């Protein structure tokens, strides 16, 4: 089986993918849309893409593409603790505090702001397609006073020196990844809970539309763990609502709640009804 992931190798997504699929062929993609298209067009059987981070919130590229562009189902969720490391070329390990530029994925830079402000307030920050890309770039340019923020796996792969350990702003920093391409995906990682994720839209100009929709869950005592609005990309001021539901009630009760929303004129798109698999980070 072929499994696509947001590459390149040694990124956090790669770590999640190889832990979840240790015996499968892993195919890196340069972007989230490219990975989703790889699943859509049959280049790979499944895909692993980030969906949310503790600090930075939802990965809007994933949410919007799955809502607007495709009907690919979500079959499982992987939760990976995120530990950011500052790394330099081994030639620069003694002079790492002279770093003038720090490279990383935008989310990794945002997750490490306090460390950067404290130790490198004047350093230039450069966004890269992935954390692994940043690490590889630093390895290829040892003559420059640059550093990368990336996972420990990147330092090992590109032979870099870690000079700042666990520099993320929040100690408990996690990223959720969705496994897409099948309604149910079995993983060699223990599952802790189940979740149903839907996208909800309500009729225009309906007074109290969102309140009415949420009441269908409230009176049934269905627990919602997340609700977030995203633009419909039609007219300014029109949104869809991304809702995560903790699956603790009988399926029939959940189905009845969704049917009640449809009877009110709302539309419901189900992303997936899937198990949550926490794994150890690096």
What can you see in these coordinates?
- The structure is a single chain.
- The protein is an alpha/beta fold and 282 residues long.
- It has three domains: 2-81 and 173-180, Periplasmic binding protein-like II (D-Maltodextrin-Binding Protein, domain 2), CATH 3.40.190; 85-164, D-Maltodextrin-Binding Protein, domain 2 (3-Layer(aba) Sandwich); 193-274, Alpha-Beta Plaits, CATH 3.30.70.
- It is 28% helix and 34% strand.
- It has nine helices and 15 strands.
- It has helices at residues 12-20, 32-40, 60-68, 106-111, 113-119, 131-140, 152-158, 209-218, 251-263; strands spanning 2-6, 25-29, 46-53, 57-58, 74-81, 85-89, 101-104, 124-127, 146-150, 160-164, 174-180, 193-201, 224-231, 239-246, 267-278.
- Strands 1, 2, 3, 4, 5, 11, 12, 13, 14 and 15 form a ten-stranded mixed β-sheet that branches. Strands 8-7-9-6-10 form a five-stranded mixed β-sheet.
- Strand 3 and strand 4 (57-58) form a beta hairpin.
- Helix 8 packs antiparallel against helix 9.
- The mean pLDDT is 91.
- Residues 2-182 form the Prephenate dehydratase domain.
- Its EC number is 4.2.1.51.
- It comes from Enterococcus ureasiticus.
- InterPro entries: ACT-like_dom_sf, ACT_dom, Chor_mutase/pphenate_deHydtase, Preph_deHydtase, Preph_deHydtase_CS.
- Keywords: Amino-acid biosynthesis, Aromatic amino acid biosynthesis, Lyase, Phenylalanine biosynthesis.
């Amino acid at each position: 089986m072929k499994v696509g992931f947001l590459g390149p190798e040694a990124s956090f997504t790669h770590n999640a993918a190889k832990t979840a699929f240790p015996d499968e062929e892993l195919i890196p993609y340069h972007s989230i849309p490219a990975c989703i298209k790889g699943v859509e067009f049959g280049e790979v059987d499944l895909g692993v893409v980030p969906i949310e981070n503790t600090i930075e919130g939802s990965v809007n590229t994933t949410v919007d593409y799955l809502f607007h562009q495709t009907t690919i189902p979500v079959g499982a969720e992987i939760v990976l603790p995120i530990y950011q490391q500052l790394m330099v070329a081994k030639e620069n390990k003694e002079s790492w505090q002279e770093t003038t530029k720090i490279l990383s994925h935008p989310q990794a830079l945002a997750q490490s702001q306090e460390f950067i402000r404290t130790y490198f307030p004047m350093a230039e920050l450069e966004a890269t397609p992935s954390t692994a890309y940043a690490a590889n770039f630093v390895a290829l340019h040892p003559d420059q006073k640059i550093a990368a923020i990336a996972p420990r796996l990147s330092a090992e792969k590109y032979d870099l020196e870690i000079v700042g350990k666990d520099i993320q702003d929040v100690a408990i920093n996690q990223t959720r990844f969705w496994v897409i391409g099948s309604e149910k995906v079995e993983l060699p990682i223990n599952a802790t809970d189940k979740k149903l994720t839907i996208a909800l839209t309500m009729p225009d100009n309906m007074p109290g539309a969102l309140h009415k929709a949420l009441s269908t869950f409230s009176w049934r005592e269905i627990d919602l763990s997340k609700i977030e609005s995203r633009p419909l990309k039609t007219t300014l001021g029109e949104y869809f609502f991304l809702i995560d539901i903790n699956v603790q009630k009988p399926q029939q009760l959940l189905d009845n709640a969704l049917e009640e929303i449809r009877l009110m004129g709302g539309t419901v798109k189900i992303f997936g009804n899937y198990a949550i698999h926490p794994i150890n980070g690096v």
